[in-house]
């Protein structure tokens, strides 16, 4: 049988089995194994699964993932988020919609120590929602701000999705991290503008809060000090070549642990919870990588990625049009599937195509992370929405899912504007990596 | 039977604790190596040990992650079905998963045996890597048993309904 046809059949079966709720990692590994066995040999397929899984588990390059996850989990359990929120609140609280602006700013700052989008959303929802309720903010704006702001944790380094993208495409993780800083700040500014416009049109949505003196504002900056110190140490050490990504992550864990011990804000239970949660997330991510690698090897022997690149090239379409189609695929895929899983599944297919068109791999990585980030706040999957829904139920009472999705809409527009800006001006992403690498 | 599953749960719990210890170990060893390097005394073979600890941490987390249903799946379609249909679908996919991971366990044990036979050791510390692969294969055994328990529970659920 034609290898390309086998590949296409494999992809179709995989999509069907995905719908059965079977874990994505298992489906990719299973289809990859079966396809490889048909294409090469049953024994080849058997060796492929066990050795690939072991190679992924034992890869030193991938040890950075559990460590960065642990850093985020410790930050999640030790009260850093409250101090970040307080600083944002002191500076922006007196403006209309200021608390929502403080929330998204704190989300970006928290994203600097936490690479997970739902963890950022959950943390900021716990801290921000009661405050916004107290100042009579509309539930839509309050929940929309935390759910959308949480997505910033995925763009702001250290980002787990960017690490995985870097490993799959053999790009420098340091360069990807540094490339993520300006887009994260850009999206934060766009979120703030969107909140400003919203509260200008409808002041009931976010009434102004109390005003603070400059002395109080400056004093509150101390609360950001430790986060900034850890971020500068970790990212600075990585950028100047002092640490490898794994070492940077270990130093980050140590830094957050030291801060929480000095401030006496991490309990033993919180520490153990962070470790177990890290084990769970790391195992899930590593299995996804193993599944994607097995599936990628099957795809490689079917030559689908290369055939697809040749096929698309035959249309003689302008590169930006092809890129737009790829971005739309990522957008719709992100709506139905977890961002990390979708990136891992599709990168082996689209990466050769897009880089073949002459686009920068670092730039493409950031674009797809931003596009799939929209998936965490769009229906029907929208993991951040469900996280915020769950937290809101406990801290301010039930907020209907429709209200949260409604509240997200202006933020979604802001992300789309951000992506369009970054597609038109790739220098915004590439400026820092080119300066440093 | 009850004692058997209780023992499996006990092993799962201990694996989880050892996995957590490995996480802490790799953090401190890496930091100690960075500090040691700063004073021109890096820890010899730390990269290898950290790699082994990471392998153990992830492998030992496998049964725990399965127990708490920590892997990502696409729920969008299944959610609209009745509970009975959902259980039947889960039963089918669990069988597929069990088959896949039994094969993985078997092949991993063969891989460890081959490494043992060839006398292959790690590059710097010359540690026998096959021990780690055997432990990983053992974790896959427990992981597969947890999937088997899900299957049994789903069958019982179907019978009751």
Give a short overview.
Chain A has helices at residues 3-18, 24-39, 42-58, 64-77, 80-92, 98-111, 117-134, 139-155, 160-169, 173-201, 214-220, 222-239, 245-262, 268-302, 304-314, 319-336, 339-356, 361-375, 383-395, 401-424, 427-436. Chain A has 437 residues and is mostly helical.
Q: How many angstroms does the end-to-end distance of chain A come to? A: 46 Å
Shape of chain B: elongated
Task: Compute the number of structural domains of chain A.
Answer: 2
Uncertain regions of chain A: pLDDT < 50 for 5+ in a row?
Answer: none
Oligomeric nature of the chains: heterodimer
| Residue fraction in strands of chain A | under 5%
User: How many separate structural domains of chain B?
Assistant: 1
Summarize model confidence as the mean pLDDT of chain A. 87
Note the run of SSEs of chain A as H and E. Answer: HHHHHHHHHHHHHHHHHHHHH
Round the Cα radius of gyration of chain B to an integer and report it: 20 Å
- How many H/I helical runs of chain B? 4
| Shape verdict of chain A | globular
Mean of residue pLDDT of chain B? 93
The total count of helices of chain A amounts to: 21
According to DSSP, the number of beta strands of chain B is 0
What structural class do helix, strand and pairing data of chain B support?
mainly alpha
Sheet with most strands of chain B: none
**H/E element string of chain B?**
HHHH
Low-confidence stretches of chain B: none
**Intertermini distance of chain B:** 23 Å
Radius of gyration of chain A using CA atoms only: 22 Å
Name its key features.
heterodimer; A: 437 residues; mainly alpha; 2 domains; B: mainly alpha
Describe this structure in words.
The complex is a heterodimer of chains A (437) and B (161). Chain A folds into 2 domains: 1-58 and 287-302, no CATH class; 64-266 and 304-436, no CATH class. The mean pLDDT of chain A is 87. The longest helix of chain A has 35 residues, at 268-302. Chain A has helices at 3-18, 24-39, 42-58, 64-77, 80-92, 98-111, 117-134, 139-155, 160-169, 173-201, 214-220, 222-239, 245-262, 268-302, 304-314, 319-336, 339-356, 361-375, 383-395, 401-424, 427-436. In chain A, α5 runs antiparallel to α6, α7 (117-134) packs antiparallel against α8 and α10 (173-201) packs across α18. Chain A contains 21 helices and no strands. With 161 residues, chain B is an all-alpha fold. Chain B has one domain. Chain B has 4 helices and no strands. Chain B has helices at 2-38, 46-67, 83-118, 130-160. In chain B, α1 packs antiparallel against α4 and α3 runs antiparallel to α4 (130-160). The chains are: A mainly alpha (437), B mainly alpha (161). Chains A and B meet through α2, α3, α4, α13 and α14 of A and α1, α2, α3 and α4 of B.
